[in-house]
Specification:
With about 550 residues, the chain is of the alpha/beta class. Helices cover about 35% and strands about 25% of the residues. It binds glutamine.
Length: about 550
């Protein structure tokens, strides 16, 4: 039977529970165990698909097309284990399932109640879709004390009784604030947070305390005493200057040992193989090169909105021993600039990346950036909306279609990008209209893409014939326009198998100008940079020497 680890957070939000969970998963994996990582978010949205990136950061898309919390991205990047639709659930989805069952008469006339019906639904999720995992980790979103989270805590409390307390571990992440005037780390908020958790009937087994400073042994004992915890299970999570240093840090603090000890598995546990983490930390501590990428986006004030993108650029940097600096450029600011000001903005930038996005604000600015990269032969990488705007820019300026645009932004145009109303998925026809619900109705998840042999894209993907990449969009480049652009040197280097949807475009007479309809950043891993990002950073590095 699998061992269950439940990860809660206390004191304040944004302590990096997702990162902590991913790091724990990777440490258990380093000992040869099979791990599975899952997330329970108490909020009432069915999934984060309709949430603004300002509210909730990036929406992470799984291979099987679920729109999920960005923490699933951390899990995949740290463990390399792909998450599934079944690895993420929200309060909204739980209530939805309960209400659907009620409408279908499945409760046989019972009064439907928070306990047991909602808690049973949560327990059903905890146990569902498991295979032969050694450890299953469940991160519970929010902070202990949130009203929304109460039923989730009640459900896991009950669950631990059912499967046996010794098969479950409760890990609680807290903060030890440092008060400079007192020159001390304060343990009181942690004590209160544990008390709050105890009110729900959950005694944490391990405390992971975020802190700026190391804790003395006496303070560790004090926390243990007040929180009913063996001081050895009070683990300090010192602030790290890179998230990729966290697994080794936790290991040095003894976290994986204490977890295995809790389950009585330490004696027979294999030693961890941490070589790949050591290698990464070594690279990060001694970069050999440096390059700067300009990201022309719309949610630049909030790096979490582009979490996977950030990490994918970083991973490509690791592959080239290159520190990748990102200069965030709000695309709409370019729209009111003179040519001279634009030159100043792009001065010292070795590559331009236009990421995905929704809505009209800033799209003309994206095209200014694309025009700049195209005509000045600066390496360019356009992702999803970034590819669509690159095609609009080329249609306007290479084909002379002055009113070329996407129907996402205006109906009053020559549509070179338009709402996708029909496409194939696993041999089945998908049909959408403008009137469809917003949630979960985009082209989502992994689709095949056939590469054009001899193209730059094919070369980067090691001359593969077909690749699978993850999508999240409603609009699509018109194949007829893409074919006309081929005469002007912008070729289609990736196509859907039915040859209807251009998936990759690239410029022939350019060092690196690639646009992709999918989101390659979701599949980049710290130990295996994505080929397109790797190629882009290599081109930017060449540019470093040119300017
Ligand atoms: N807004 C565009 C569409 O829906 C692009 C989406 C994206 O960049 N993810 O097609």
């Amino acid at each position: 039977m699998a061992k269950y680890i439940f990860i809660t957070g206390g004191v304040v939000s944004s302590l990096g529970k997702g990162m902590a969970s991913a790091a724990i998963g990777s440490l258990l994996q380093a000992r040869g165990y099979k791990v599975r990582m899952r997330k329970m978010d108490p909020y009432l949205n069915i999934d984060p698909g309709t949430m603004s990136p300002y509210q909730h950061g990036e929406v992470f898309v799984t291979e099987d097309g679920a729109e999920t919390d960005l923490d699933l991205g951390h899990y995949e990047r740290f463990t390399g284990v792909p998450c599934h639709r079944t690895d993420s659930i929200s309060g909204g989805k739980i209530y939805y399932n309960v209400l659907m069952k009620e409408r279908h008469g499945e409760y046989l006339g019972a009064t439907v109640q928070a306990i047991p019906h909602v808690t049973d639904e949560i327990k059903h999720f905890i146990e569902s879709a498991l295979t032969d995992e050694d450890f299953v980790l469940y991160e519970i979103g929010g902070t202990v004390g949130d009203i929304e989270g109460t039923l989730f805590l009640e459900a896991v409390r009950q669950f631990a009784i059912t499967v046996g307390r010794n098969n479950c571990l409760f890990l609680h992440l807290t903060l030890l604030p440092y008060i400079p005037t007192a020159g001390e780390l304060k343990t009181k908020p942690t004590q209160h947070s544990v008390k709050k958790l105890l009110e729900t009937g959950i005694q944490p087994d391990i405390l992971l305390c975020r802190s700026q400073l190391m804790l003395s042994d006496s303070e560790r004992r004090k926390i243990g005493l007040f929180c009913n915890i063996n001081p050895q299970n009070v683990i300090i999570a010192l602030d790290a200057d890179s998230i990729y240093k966290i697994p080794l840090q936790y290991h040095d603090e003894g976290l994986d040992r204490q977890i295995l000890k809790h389950f009585g598995m330490l004696e027979n546990a294999p030693d961890p193989n941490l070589e790949k983490w050591q290698k990464i930390v070594h690279t990060i501590n001694a970069w050999e090169h440096e390059t700067t990428i300009g990201v022309v986006g719309k949610y630049c004030g909030l790096p979490d909105a582009y979490k996977s993108l950030n990490e994918a650029l970083f991973h490509a940097g690791i592959a080239h021993k290159t520190k990748v600096n990102i200069k965030w450029i709000e695309s709409d600011t370019l729209e009111t600039m003179t040519e001279e000001q634009i030159n100043t903005v792009f001065h010292g930038i070795h590559g331009i990346l236009v990421p995905g996005g929704f809505g009209q604000r800033g799209i003309e600015g994206k095209m200014i950036a694309e025009h700049y990269a195209r005509t000045r032969k600066i390496p360019f990488f356009g992702i999803c909306l970034g590819m669509q705007t690159a095609v609009i820019e080329a249609s306007r300026n290479l084909l002379g279609i002055k009113d070329a645009n996407s129907t996402e932004f205006t109906e009053d145009c020559t549509p070179v990008v338009a709402l996708m109303t029909q496409w194939e998925q696993d041999g089945r026809k998908q049909v959408r209209t403008k009137q469809n619900d917003m949630g979960g109705t985009m082209r989502l998840g992994a689709y095949p893409c056939q590469l054009k042999q001899g193209s730059l894209a094919a070369k980067l993907y090691d001359n593969a014939d077909v690749i699978y990449e993850r999508h999240r969009h409603r609009y699509e480049v018109d194949i007829k326009i893409a074919k006309r652009l081929e005469e002007k040197g912008m070729i289609i280097s990736g196509l859907s198998p039915d040859k209807m949807l251009p998936e990759i475009i690239e410029l022939q007479d350019h060092p690196f100008y690639i646009g992709v309809q999918f989101h390659p950043e979701f599949k980049s891993r710290a130990f295996e940079a994505h080929p397109l990002f790797k190629g882009f950073i290599a081109a930017a590095l060449k540019q470093t020497k040119l300017i």
